[in-house]
Predict the structure of ABC-transporter type IV.
Amino acid sequence: MNKLIKYIIIFILFSLFGWTYENILLNKKSQDTTLTEIIGINAPFLLIYGVGGILIFYTYSNFPHMKLLSKIIIASILINSVECISGKLSYYIRGYHTWNYNKCFYPLCDGYISLFTIILWTLMITMILLIFSYLDKKNK
């Protein structure tokens, strides 16, 4: 399969998963209207999760020589950096906090990330990288 198509599929799946996770499992009504503002479609997608999926897949597929732990660390740094930067950008552009982890254990980056969420993302990244590895071995 073409690499670009893989990235598009990953982006769509993770954006859908993010929306499902936040709106159904956490029972949060998403304030993210980015997709509606960009293309005028109100769809069940959270784009930041799609970007995260691409970063995780990029880390997995472009560093085959690295051990799993190294990939987990790199992906975790990337994901949490994107969450911090996009949170600050969102506030700068829209004037409100799209998400806020100030009530979580040890908030960082003005509450856009926290030690608690870093640990959760790292566990999720580990699970996703293990799934990618399993699927890769299964398809060989």
Remarks:
- Residues 3-138 form one domain.
- Residues 68-94 form the longest helix (27 residues).
- The CA atoms of residues 55 and 75 lie 7 Å apart.
